[in-house]
Specification:
By secondary structure, the chain is α/β, with parallel strands linked by helices. It has three domains: 6-274, Rossmann fold; 279-432, Orthogonal Bundle (Isoleucyl-tRNA Synthetase, Domain 1); 435-488, no CATH class. Helices cover 46% and strands 14% of the residues. The chain is built from 17 helices and 15 strands. It has helices spanning 41-59, 86-94, 98-115, 131-143, 158-164, 175-181, 224-234, 248-263, 294-299, 311-319, 331-353, 364-376, 381-399, 407-424, 430-433, 437-456, 460-472; strands spanning 6-9, 14-17, 25-30, 63-68, 147-150, 153-156, 197-202, 218-220, 238-244, 268-274, 277-279, 282-283, 327-329, 475-479, 484-488. The protein has a four-stranded parallel β-sheet with strand order 4-3-9-10, with helices on both faces. The chain has a four-stranded antiparallel β-sheet with strand order 5-6-7-8, covered by helices on one side. It has a three-stranded mixed β-sheet with strand order 12-11-13. Strand 11 (277-279) and strand 12 (282-283) form a beta hairpin. The structure holds zinc ion.
Length: 489
């Protein structure tokens, strides 16, 4: 298939035709979660955005190596160089080992990602499993003169870096302005400049996660893991680096500085960032009480929720907005998404039963072109969905006898919709994932209706056999005069 995919590069601030460095291979690195709390809406958006990219690149027959890390050490409070490690803080609070905290929240993250039908990354490296690689990178940066040691901690020298390269390309931050804006915090006297950032931190005596190093018993800085692990698995130069927009500064700026200083060149060709989710127009924050976890959304147990929402409703809701736009959560918006998704899935069922005509009155080939144009335009999923709904309109109109489709066009429309809905957008029919109670009720009623006919024919042994088989799986049949009742044991 000819590649016409354009993606918005946060580095050049424009849409660029996607040209892999080593086609058909594509290297994709996405910053994964720091696993210290339940996954929430904010985790769902990058996961689904880059899942869409992964799925579409695979659809275009690229061989994608999708690396998404797990941060399990070094991410300190407020994304700063001082303060407690987020995981250690939680461990203390929950009386767990830090690695128990990591395992616990990694498990829920994985469970939620499966519920959202995101594909597994090709590699999911953990920061704590790559201490050696991170230390090697620090040694190289010290050797090249871009890092310095103070009291057992190692910092990146941004002023030195800025002499040769330019810091702040993604976020537009200017070093001089940063200096005047930053407050002097405790421990910053170790730094030559307040904007320098930690590559290695000496551990305080009570700090639990620590490793020996040439500088001190300590732990790596948060930004370092992504430079070390992306280079290890994708090479010095790779195609796409993704993450949430909130990671542009300082995380991605620091990653660029580390990698560029170490390798002498830019390592990422395209930077992609998804925008944030707001809740009823407000930023999502624990302090505002509007932090909604995915488990709460799926169960409806949160004071801001008027009902529960299925994982596919959440996925559809996120895909309804372009990944670079903000997306506002509200019950009304989610209910609308739920309705839209039902309409889409119902149309697929109708499509399977459509009666072909001799000729067609709608142009399916044109619709296919429009769908590809939309996805090729920087993964424009809302426009793509509007074209898929144009397909829904055709289906309903053919079903009502207004429009006509011949059998080849019915097949082609089915192929088009199923490819985009299931394979590329990653939606799935909820009937397959949630056989709910009404469905089971209907099934048992159907069996009992057949049993009534058997009884009318006075085939008592078969009738008893059915009662016995249902009994075995815990369904109790109560024969009454006029009707049959049943209950689950
Ligand atoms: Zn990262």
């Amino acid at each position: 298939m000819q590649n016409k995919l354009f993606i918005y590069n946060s580095l050049s601030k424009q849409k660029e035709l996607f040209k892999p460095l080593h086609a058909p291979f594509v290297g994709l690195y996405v910053c994964g979660p720091t696993v210290y709390s339940d996954a929430h809406l904010g985790h769902a958006r990058p996961a689904i955005t880059f899942d869409l990219l992964f799925r579409y690149l695979t659809h275009l027959e690229y061989k994608v190596r999708y690396v998404r890390n797990i941060t399990d050490v070094g991410h300190l409070e407020n994304d700063a160089d001082e303060g407690e490690d987020k995981i250690e803080k939680k461990a203390r609070f929950e009386h767990l080992e830090p690695m128990e905290v990591v395992q616990k929240y990694m498990n829920t993250f994985h469970k939620n990602m499966e519920q959202l039908n995101t594909l597994h990354p090709s590699i999911e490296p953990r920061a704590s499993g790559h201490i050696v690689e991170q230390q090697e990178l620090i040694k190289l940066l010290i050797k090249k003169g871009y890092a310095y040691e103070t009291n057992g901690s190692v910092y990146f020298d941004l002023l030195k870096y800025n002499e040769k390269y330019k810091y702040g390309k993604l976020s537009g931050r200017v070093l001089e302005e940063m200096q005047s804006n930053t407050r002097t915090l405790e421990g910053q006297d170790e730094k030559h400049n307040s904007f320098d950032f930690a590559l290695w931190k000496k551990a305080t005596p009570e700090h639990l996660m620590r490793w020996p190093s040439p500088w001190s018993d300590g732990f790596p800085g948060w930004h370092l893991e992504c430079s070390a692990m992306s280079t290890k698995y994708l090479g010095d130069e790779f195609d796409i680096h993704g993450g949430g927009m909130d990671l542009q500064f300082p995380h991605h700026e620091c990653e660029i500085a580390q990698s560029t200083a170490a390798l002498g060149k830019e390592s990422v060709k395209y930077w992609m960032h998804n925008n944030m989710i707001t809740i009823n127009g407000q930023k999502m924050a624990r302090s505002l009480g509007n932090f909604i976890t995915l488990d709460e959304l799926f169960s409806g147990k949160h004071k801001l929720l008027t009902q529960k929402y299925s994982s596919m409703t959440i996925r559809f809701f996120i895909l309804q907005a372009h990944y670079r736009s903000t997306l506002d959560f509200s019950n009304e918006a989610l209910q609308a998404a739920e309705k839209g998704l039902t309409r889409l899935m119902k149309a697929l069922e109708t499509l399977r039963k459509l009666k072909p005509s001799e000729s067609s009155t709608v142009d399916i080939k044109k619709l296919r072109e429009k769908c590809y144009e939309a996805i090729n335009d920087d993964l424009n999923s809302p426009i793509l969905l509007s074209f898929l709904f144009e397909g829904v309109k055709y289906i309903n109109s053919v079903n009502e006898g207004v429009d006509k489709l011949n059998s080849a066009d019915i097949e082609s429309l089915r192929n088009l919709l199923e490819t985009f809905i299931f394979e590329i957008l990653g939606l799935k029919s909820e009937k397959e994932i949630d056989i709910d109670k009404p469905f089971i009720d209907d099934l048992i009623d159907a069996i009992l209706n057949i049993r009534q006919i058997i009884k009318l024919n006075k085939d008592w042994s078969t009738s008893d056999k059915i009662r016995g088989e249902l009994n075995k799986i815990g369904i109790i049949i109560k024969d009454k005069k006029e009707e049959v009742d049943w209950e689950i044991e």
